[in-house]
Amino acid sequence: MTATIVAQPGTPPASPPPKPKADPVDRILDVGIYIALAALVLVFSVASPYFLTVGNLLNIGQAVAQTGILAAGVTIALIAGQLDISFGSVIAITAVLIAVLTSAGVPVAVAVLAAVVAGLLVGVLNGVLIVHLNISSIISTLAVGTAVTGGAYLVASGQVVPLPDPTVFSWVNARILGLPVPMLIAIAVYVAGWILLSKTKLGAHIYAVGGNSSAALRAGIPVKRIYFTVLLISSGLAVLAGVIVLGRTGAGDPSYGAADMFTVLGAVLLSGIGLGGGTGSVQRTLIGVLIIGVLANGLVLLGVQSYYQQLLNGAVLVLAVVMEAIRRKRRSR
Amino acid sequence: MKHFSGLSSALAVSATVLLLAGCATAANSSAEPPAAGGSGDRYTQDDVTTATGIHDVTSVFSVPKSLPEDLNLAYINPSLGTPFFKSMSDGYKAAAEFYGVDIHEADLGNFNFADAVNKYDTISVFQPEVVGILTPSGAGLVDRTRADGVKLLASGIPIEGADGFIGTPERETGMLAGSVLAEGVAPLVDDEWADQEVVFVGLGQAAIPTTMERVESGLEGFEAGGVEPDSAEFPDLGKSATVADGVRVMADFLTAHPEQAIAVVAMNDQAGVGALQAVQAAGRQDDVRIVTIGADEVGRAAFKSDDGIILGEVDLNPWGAGWRWVEAALALALDEEFVIPAPERVITRDNVDELYPED
Amino acid sequence: MTTDQAPALESLLSVRGISKAFGHIQALTDVSLDIAPGEVLALLGDNGAGKSTLIKILSGLYATDSGEIRMRGVPQRFQSPADAKAAGIATVYQDLALVDTRDVAANLFLGREYTRGPFIDVKRNVAESRRVLEQLKLGHLPASGVPVGVMSGGQRQAVAVARTVVSGAELIIMDEPTAALGVSESAKVMALAHELRDSGCAVIIISHNLQQVWDFADRFAVLHLGRLAGVRRRSESTVEEIVQLIVYGAAGA
């Protein structure tokens, strides 16, 4: 995280100038999520004999895969300064389109292709509104997402559409070397996201565009193309999550994705990425995803009343937002 | 079909329906509800009646007094924030305690069915014999439970390929609601509503077929009750069926039908209470009568304070439904049979204080 | 009125008779100016004197109505900032155009990163950054790992200036570099201007604060109401004379 050390006018010149250092509060905010995750794991391990078992940890891995894949996409877009909240609608349209088309006898490959095209179109539409019409990303993606969700209900006639042959997507429920497939997919997404952001030129430009878009533009970086790229990555990953949900449940339901809004945004906010753009990483988002996933799992194992679960989830979100507010305040000092 | 007036006739009908409902697991027809009285190695209806008190549960399976060690169950609740399902949760927990088995619970939050398989995975570490869930999309869960050798007992909404189903027979429930509505509306049709068109309205969720079956059967019961509406409409409550959804849908409906008299069967108390609020806001008290299905706390509270617009509430006895799910699950675990009961009673102005004295 | 007409051959930049009007407002009238390599020129004037219009013309943001711009004797027609940049003119604006969340190396090579295929050659970017920082006697600045947002105003200014060196600029224009800085930080920025001069670059510093630039500039060009009021060498002038040029447009008034 960034500390803000602005030299006061009249400060005597220090020689040599001190290397800027993060101060303790920033340090705590920085490592806080790691401590929180470790504390949760510790508490649940002590409180439930089932928690720290290989089976349960794999269950957590499986359960957070979908949230995690979505959160990775949201993170990449947010680093570029765009908050994409249309992912829920992409999940719905993906699951519903594939279920409806295969029910109508369309080959699975074609149905999946149609879902991919539909999902990427959502990204393009978001991009057109944000880049060409200059509408803020949160408004644009909310509008597009709402419309697409409506489209999903329309395509499904408001019904839950079972897959005619669920075995086609049963690979989603399979395990490779004992590891659940969705978890492996999520791991691949995070490794790719990490490489993209920290190793590639595109990644460097994503940070630059999010950190200071006009500076990036003046430096010759194709800012608009970067915006489109991150929005397409985000909606593309939502398509992937949609296929996983479809395989997991065996049916396409236009209400899918609606509940992911809070877990995904919660995980992303927990990472401390902030809404300003230019900072964050998929690694930190992953910690946020795991905190929410571990909390959901552990509370069920402890048999905690779900009212408290919702309360706790809400509290985690509030905490994330407060941490972000503290950070922003310190930054602007 | 006759008009009903209160508890006794409702019980009479539900007894008939009970016979029609038949066996849940159709393998053989030897299943019997617990005999009244007697003692032995199984709990009887009397035991259950005593244990369930005001909830007055009709048992669906005579549970053996000694059960295998470590027998445990799991229920994935669709929304503990909804009074109906909270009541159900209290019921299955009470039953589990009574019968001496463990029950583990997970919550889908606000009907987040996409998360059902993940919640199953979480709860599967307890290695339950039987897991229960209410979901319109359960195909993936069938595969998962089968792979684990866990029995899936669908609750409320049948799941194709599941090991069993226990729930409210939608048709009988809807018909009962419709007949209660017809009984209350019939005198109006001859009198105050004589010059008005009468519209039947079924408030259900188009996305969940069982709710539509319920309200469509409401129309059937309404007509069977001797009232022939001029038209019937089924506006969609949408994804959820909350009070707010009821208000929204009914307010629009009232606007679109300014002159008509309207008879409503609501799929649940929330939708019915929402409709009631919309009617009150529009000042259309004289034009509308409502029967709801559920009779949870929200429904009963509104019912007790309204001005005669809600005629009655079919008592789905969610607490009892939870209790009975445990009995059915135990039957399934022991490879025995259970019966699906039809709704037992209608809450009316005359009996509500007697049946729910704690309100 | 005295104008220092340095021979065009020595000039890096040579501006001849440029004028610019916005509607009825004549922002610049017949301005001619030269700057040689290895020279620091302070461009002075009150608000509205035409400083920023002149700078925007030199940066390629505005086209001139009339007049000529030459770089090393070659006539230029700037259609865009990219043209000016290509001609070797780099401008450091007050906003610095830094990405605060990224480190020095990322900022110095923003948009012109060394790569290997699709991957960033981080080692090389950092090594080159160190080299440039050393060259400008900025070796104390961390080339990597520290976001420039946490650095002081003077350090950030230094990073922005170093970036113009990376871009290969020969003429570096600094727009009010000391406006937001304290005394010691301002001195450091001016020292940096000397480093640039010593490495053979020409530097134009825009300022409305004569005190801050007096000790550091070799010459002073003063604009008054869109006209060049005068150009003076420091060795041949006084603070009082320059102030009179700034305020009245003429010395000895």
TrEMBL record, chain A:
Composition-biased stretches (Pro residues) = 10-19
- Where is this protein primarily located? membrane
Q: Which domain of life does this protein belong to?
A: Bacteria
Where does it reside?
Answer: Cell membrane
Query: What keywords does the record list, in alphabetical order?
Result: Cell membrane, Membrane, Transmembrane, Transmembrane helix
One Pfam family name is BPD_transp_2
Q: Name one GO cellular component term.
A: plasma membrane
Q: Where is this region: Disordered?
A: 1-21
* Transmembrane segments annotated in the record for this chain: 31-51, 63-80, 87-106, 112-131, 138-156, 176-197, 226-246, 258-278, 285-304, 310-326
Q: How does it sit in the membrane?
A: Multi-pass membrane protein
For this chain, one GO molecular function annotation is: transmembrane transporter activity
PANTHER family (alphabetical): ABC TRANSPORTER PERMEASE PROTEIN YPHD-RELATED-RELATED, RIBOSE IMPORT PERMEASE PROTEIN RBSC
- The protein's name: Ribose ABC transporter permease
State the species of origin: Agromyces kandeliae
From TrEMBL, chain B:
What is the protein's given name? Answer: Substrate-binding domain-containing protein
Its signal peptide is 1-26
Q: Which family does it belong to?
A: Belongs to the bacterial solute-binding protein 2 family.
User: Major location, coarse class?
Assistant: other
Q: Where does the UniProt annotation locate this protein?
A: Cell envelope
Give the GO cellular component terms, alphabetically: cell envelope
Query: In the UniProt record, does the keyword Protein biosynthesis occur?
Result: no
Q: Name one Pfam family in it.
A: Peripla_BP_4
Q: Does the keyword Calcium apply?
A: no
Give start and end of each Periplasmic binding protein domain.
74-334
Q: Which GO terms describe its molecular function?
A: carbohydrate binding
| Keywords recorded for this protein, A-Z | Signal
From TrEMBL, chain C:
Q: Name one Pfam family in it.
A: ABC_tran
Q: Which InterPro entries match?
A: AAA+_ATPase (IPR003593), ABC_carbohydrate_import_ATPase (IPR050107), ABC_transporter-like_ATP-bd (IPR003439), ABC_transporter-like_CS (IPR017871), P-loop_NTPase (IPR027417)
Q: Which UniProt key words apply to this protein?
A: ATP-binding, Nucleotide-binding
Q: Tell me, what is one Gene Ontology molecular-function annotation carried by this entry?
A: ATP hydrolysis activity
Enumerate the PROSITE patterns for this protein.
ABC_TRANSPORTER_1 (PS00211), ABC_TRANSPORTER_2 (PS50893)
Task: Specify the domain of life of the species encoding this protein.
Answer: Bacteria
Keyword Aminoacyl-tRNA synthetase in the entry? The reply is no
Q: What is this protein called?
A: ATP-binding cassette domain-containing protein
Q: Which taxonomic lineage does the organism of this UniProt entry have?
A: Bacteria, Bacillati, Actinomycetota, Actinomycetes, Micrococcales
